[in-house]
Amino acid sequence: MPIYIIRPKANLVSQSLSLVSRKFTLESRRQQTQEVESVYREDSSYQTLIQWAEDMKGKENIQILKSPEKLGVTGTIIIEMPEEDAKNTQQQLPEFSILKDQPIDLIKPDKVTTSFKSENDLKDDDLWHLKAIKYTLPPQVTGKDITIAVLDTGIDSFHPSLRAKVSKSVEFDILQGQVKELTNSLDTEGHGTHVAGLICGRRIGIAPDATLINGLMIPKGRGSLANFIIALEWAANNPEIQIVNVSAGLQGFFSDMEEVISDMLAVGVLPVCASGNEGRDRTRSPGNYRSVLSVGASNKQGRVTSFSSSGTLTVENTTYNIPHLVAPGEAVYSSVVQGGYEAWNGTSMATPIVSGVAALILERYPDLTVLDLREELLNRCELLNQPKERQGLGLIQVGDLS
Questions:
Q1: Which end of the chain, C or N, has fewer beta carbons within 10 A?
Q2: Is there a catalytic annotation at residue 348?
Q3: CATH number, domain at 334?
Q4: pLDDT digits (tens, 9 = 90+) for 23-76
């Protein structure tokens, strides 16, 4: 039976909140989440949705997977019901969008399969991504006390470079509307482990003392929009999380989900998202949304890679370019499942590098707001000798953090 996502057409949060003073501290994050939830709780149209959901309980062929009573920060409910009931619901709730759930896929990288190396075999040239962003070894700041949620295929926390780096591992069970904590942190496909290594892996990572939380959102590379919403709600309600790293998406601009991820800014969480691996004039959602930090890929020669997705979009009379910035994403070595390292190509490799730099900046300047952090990352970019529409503001640089 189809699953549907119901949420207000109007973005209640952006109409009610100022983001200027939103900070990343635990106390501030808790307060922001409560404030966002109260916006929905006090809205008269949302009260109508709560009553409608109450009337649906117990009806044959209808199951509420995410209740409106558990408001969360996205103002959504998730329900399983026949298509005919979904059509009737749209008539009953004209102020809400009724969105049918659909798959959301891993942004799959190209694996350079002949590149496998042990840690002892890694040469300085294999770690070119560190030099390209002016990363100093040993780093002056290390990402200590910064937590990044990796919403991916899982993380192999037994990899030597990632031991003691993953504090928690969860999976998202949409049919039960639950987040389940996992005993072990494992990778169902291999992608998340490569991503995690570039954030904080020994020798290869940007923020070696950052803490990771493994959010298994796309098991074996396949998830759904409903899973994505549950994952965002979970991240928002865990005040220790300051950054979410996302390398999954839908091809094209998917407008129905833009406001869902933009609500993350209102609770002091920065979404860092891959733009896609389809090249010019093709982008993926959520990597092409205005409210995220969208990341494209560059190579060792200081050029934007041919596969790095980019495009010019016009949304609500605003025209902007994607990606917002680029980072090393071609022939980048990182950890792979069961030990060892491989070089992979993809914007999925560039994205965790930016998340790692964000962790360094946030450790150094803990009083930043979420918008301040986003601006600081953009201001640290260095323009490449490439078309601006392909690189955004340029190649991320660590720069001076003394």
A1: C
A2: yes
A3: 3.40.50.200
A4: 677 778 888 888 888 888 888 888 888 888 888 887 888 888 888 767 678 888
* Residue where one domain finishes, among candidates 102, 124, 152: 102
Q: Kindly list the distances between the CA atom of residue 155 and the CA atoms of 150, 205, 218, 219, 333, in Å, as whole numbers in the listed order.
A: 8, 14, 12, 11, 16
Structure tokens at 162: 């990632």
DSSP string, 247-288: -EEEES--GGGHHHHHHHHHTT-EEEEE--SS-BT--EETTT
Q: Cα–Cα distances in Å, from 80 out to 52, 59, 84, 281?
A: 14, 11, 12, 35
Same domain, yes or no: 81 and 32: yes
Both 333 and 389 in a single domain? yes
Annotated catalytic residue, options 224, 291, 348, 355: 348
Q: Mean pLDDT throughout 281-286?
A: 95
Within the chain, how many helices (H) and strands (E) appear?
11, 23
Last residue of a domain, one of 43, 72, 102: 102
- 402 assigned to some structural domain: no
Positive/negative CA dihedral, 174, 223, 116, 280: negative
pLDDT in tens, 135-160: 987 888 999 999 999 999 999 999 99
Residue tagged active-site, from 129, 191, 194, 324: 191
Active site residue 324: no
Q: Domain range for residue 19?
A: 3-102
From the candidates 43, 152, 156, 187, give the one annotated as an active-site residue: 152
Antiparallel, parallel or unpaired: β 166-173 and 211-216: parallel
| 81-85: Cβ within 8 A, 24+ apart | 81/1, 81/2, 81/4, 81/56, 82/1, 82/2, 83/2, 85/61
**Residue 367 exposed, middle or buried by CB count within 10 Å (0-12, 13-18, 19+):** exposed
